[in-house]
Specification:
The chain has 2 domains: 2-149, no CATH class; 154-339, no CATH class. Helix content is 61%, strand content 2%. It has helices at 2-26, 33-52, 62-87, 104-116, 128-170, 176-181, 192-196, 200-212, 228-245, 254-271, 289-293, 303-308, 310-322; strands at 93-95, 123-125. It has a two-stranded antiparallel ribbon with strand order 1-2. The termini are far apart. The mean pLDDT is 86. The chain crosses the membrane at residues 5-24, 30-47, 59-80, 132-159. Pfam families: Ion_trans_2.
Amino acid sequence: MDEVLFFILGVLIICLGVYDLLYTTFAPRGAGLMSGLTSTLIWRFFLGLSMLFKTRRALAGAGITIIMATILSWVLMLWAGQTLIYLSDVDAVVNSTTEVPANLYDRIYFTGYTLSSLGNGDFKGGTNAWRVYSAFISFSGLIFITIAISYMVPILSAVTERRSLSIRIAAIGDSPELMLLNSWDGKDFKSLDKHFSGLAQPIAKQGQLHLAYPLLHYFYHSEKAVALLPNLAALDEALTMLLLYVPEDKRPSNQTMVPIRRAITTFMESLTAITPAPKSLEEPYLGIKQLEEANIPLQLPEAERLDQLRKRRKLLNAMLSYVGWEWEEIANPKFNTDLDLRDIR
């Protein structure tokens, strides 16, 4: 009876591991059940450390830890499942010299060795069928482990792309209001067109990369200039100010603004599966004091338009909070002022 139980349990664990690996690596959207759970638990652990020690630098190691833990979980599920299958038959693994059936630890050793190679010959399958099965899992194990490792390479490349995009957005201005003030020429904000041009495509790409590689979300940067989410939130807030408070004839063209706004929307949608519900946080304050002090002609937005953006801004706030940022920080300086003129903003 135990042998049947071992076999069934082994098959279930292998199926879960293979499905999780293939879904995470090949599905166009999201992570598998085990990968998602592993990522969430480890991220919450690192987030707890950052709160305990009151430093976001504790989050810096979360990304690589989650990657290694995810690969390890796949390997362990395959290893455990195959070991249970070998335990389902007393003659499944025998000593190559004495033909004595292997004990538990020998079968664990034999399974691990077989998954990555064909072993070193001290143990073997006890029957022809088990020897063929050993060759099969050696071949399949090597394929799955190679897929798991290959999956991680594009993530590291995507992290570099994300840092580059973040710096490009941060260079527009230190805060949402400064993004606008830096482009005000006394008449309008049309000069923002050259900053916004070409931003929609890389932002949309980052959203799709988050869907294809959910682990990408857990690579944290404590430096604001290279942290994409705070800079995207600042850019989106600047667009909100333009759409609500700036007369249409003084805004950048819709041909540059609308694609960016929609690209940010797709980016936000790609993160909704791993961030809190928007109702869990209050809507952040929308401040335009600096614009008013600069005597920029503004219009009073309709209440209905403000209501339409409430969910969007609450979701952005929730996303920032989940990765350890506060909404107020999107207005903080982004670059190291020790290396440049103090009045550059």
